[in-house]
Amino acid sequence: NQLLASLILLGICVWLYKTGKQIWYVVIPMILMLSMTIWSLVLLMIPFFKDMPNLFSNLKVNDLISGIVGLFLFLMSAFIIAEAVNILVIKRYFIKADIEAEKLNP
Q1: C-alpha angle 49-54-60 in degrees, rounded to nearest 5
Q2: What is the pLDDT of residues 50-105, one digit of tens each?
Q3: I need a labelling partner for 51 at 20 to 30 A (CA). Which of 3, 9, 27, 85 fits?
Q4: 3 confidence band (pLDDT: 50, 70, 90)
């Protein structure tokens, strides 16, 4: 639930940015929630990766399920975060560079 809430805040942040409104009142809670949720996912995946060499002999079913689901959620979250960073930071930089280039070369 917390991962979903933080990703929704991330989507709201992108929407606010695209509409030209202030985003900082959404960014701070989003960063806090997202960092804590990602950290808990990493802690859930640690037993899975520790027992990876003995995958079929020593791994508990709960660790296997937690590891696979945690890894899937982590990868999907990383993809969504990368897309948001692309919109909020990288494209913003290129838009500013294009505007400055147009001012120099009318």
Answers
A1: 75
A2: 877 776 677 677 777 888 888 999 999 999 888 888 887 777 666 666 666 666 66
A3: 3
A4: confident
Cα distance between residue 61 and residue 57, in whole Å:
11
20: Cα within 13 Å, side-chain hemisphere: 0
**What is the 3-class SS of the chain, one letter each residue?**
CHHHHHHHHHHHHHHHHHCCCCCHHHHHHHHHHHHHHHHHHHHHHHHHHHCHHHCCCCCCHHHHHHHHHHHHHHHHHHHHHHHHHHHHHHHHHHHHHHHHHHHHCC
The single-letter code of the amino acid at 99 is: I
Residue with tokens 């989507």, as numbered in its chain: 11
More confident residue, 13 or 48: 13
Tell me the one-letter amino acid at 1: N
